[in-house]
Structures are given as C-alpha cells and as structure tokens.
Design a protein that fits this description.
Length: 342
Amino acid sequence: MNTQESIYLMKKISFLLPERCMPTGLTGPYEMFNAASEYMTMKGLSDGPFFQIETVGLSKNRVHLGSNITVKCDRTINNLDSTDLIIIPPSRLEDPEVFKRNLNFVPWIKYHYRNSNAEIASLCLGSFLLASTGLLDGKVCTTHWNASDQFESMFPNVNFCQNLILTNEERLYTSGGVTSFLSLVVLLIEKYCGRETAIWVSKRFLVDVDRVTQSYFAIFNTQKKHQDTSIKIAQEYIENNYHNEISVEGIAKKVSISRRNFIRRFKKATKNTPLEYIQRVKIEAAKKQLENSSETIYNIMFSVGYNDNKSFRNRFKKITGLTPKEYRKKYNSAYIIHPSNN
C-alpha cells in the first residue's frame, strides 16, 4: 500500500487492555506506531499524527497488567463506534481464569471485524483471545512456541504453525514468541505508511526486517506431561542414549510393546513420532554444544549420533531454521570473537 492517497489516510488504532496484559507487549508497539507518526510528519507525509491511538477496556476501572502495574483505558468497548486496527497485546491468556475474565472482548472483536472492516493483530499469547472468536478457524495462526500444545488443544480448527514469526490472512494477523511483535508491527507500518517508514522504524528499534520463523528460538521441551509410564521410560532411554545407534523397534522391545502400538502411543503422548523425538533430542544436544563449545561441527555431528554430514545439516536446519554454522554464529559468543572455530 504505497500510493500517495493511501499514505495520507489517518488510521485509528485500538489497543485492547485485557487483564494481566504484559506491559512490554503494550508499550513497545505503542512507541513504534508513535515513532512512525513522527517520521511521517517529519517527511511531510502527514499534517499531524498519522496514527490515532487509543486504549480500550471492558470498563472504566483500572486494568491490572503484569508486574503489579495498573492503567486506565482511554475508552471502553461500549463507546467506540469504529476503528481501523485492533491490537490484542500478549496477556496471560493461557491461564484459564484470566482467559475467562477477558472473554467479554470476543463479541466486540467479531463485530468490528465484520462491520467496521477492522483488521485485527494479536501479539504472542493474544492469539488465544483472537482464536476464541472463531475468526481464525481454518486460517493460519501462530503464538508463543511454549504455549503451542495448549493452543492446539483449545483451538483444533485453527491451522496452527508453531515455527512462524507472524501470519497474515484475511485481515487477521498473529505473531509468535514475545518479541516477534516487533516484526508484526513493522509489517503493519509498512502496509499503512510504506516501506521507507517501516525501514526507518526497524532501524530505530533494532528490528530484523522480514523475519518469518521462530523455530530457532524454541527450546526443546521433553514432553512428559502425560500418564503413559512406558512411554516416559522410552523417552528417558532416548535422552540417555541419543549418541548411540537406536531404533524404534529396539525401544519398543525394551518397553515390551509391539512396534505399531508403541508408535501410536508415543505420538498420542508426546505429539511426536518416536523417530521425530529421537531426531529432536539429537539436534537439541548439538545445539547445546554449538552454543557452549569450540568443537568442530563434524565432531559435534558424530557426538550426537550422526554419520552423514548432509543428513545432519538438513535435519538441523529443518528443526531450528538455521544451519549449524549460522546457529553457532548467532548464539556462541566465543565463535563471534574467533570466527575460525567452525
């Protein structure tokens, strides 16, 4: 959206104030949109503030945010006629009690999406509130990787993609883990204000432009929140023997379950097939070595049970979004100082 006509159209942004909203997820985007307005005015692209920003709550009472902070909203959902963009900041919406206390936003969000032609952007865990409207059913969505299992369980009709930094489908936007809101805000600024303003804001706030994946931020969480004792034993065996040659058949035999039944039960309990789990444990071990040692990538590859360089690199990139060398360069400070350690 780069035409002169579109640049001069002021946009109204409504920041929802759900209970237990995370302050950084509110103030960060707020400051970025204000900075875009300042740049537009400085460049003569707008006579006044380009974005009209207001906070919107369920009532006039002060809203309790995280870290014992309270704020008062500019207006309530009952006295806002129209808006161009609704921002749902991250809140502790994975907490069932907090989620229920914020559900009164749902009909208001649906109304403005359908009747005001408003766009809606959820930041991080704000996707729980957006998904509860049903507007995301059948659409692509992301959220913080650490809440992915709970999100998929609560909203099975959403096309959930854990690895994405942000999504954009039919005027609905979602972003992944905490700071990925920065990338989403830059995207929205580019849409409303043009590429030049978006790049200026990204430089001011040190945001990587065009980031699309959060897989290299995900910490592998051994999924043991289930009651299948045999599968837990299998998981522990994999985690203790990932550096050796292990097979699905061998593990199934150790826990005295048929191969077919073992695969079915393992997937049900962990959301991974046994082979996927084995590969993820190996890659997690490789990540730790790349972060903390100066061992060569070849030695690390062998130490986690891989013998084929191409297979290891392909699997590593599929899981993390980076090659082993890129991962080391990003997360190992010693490598940055001594780049010959590859």
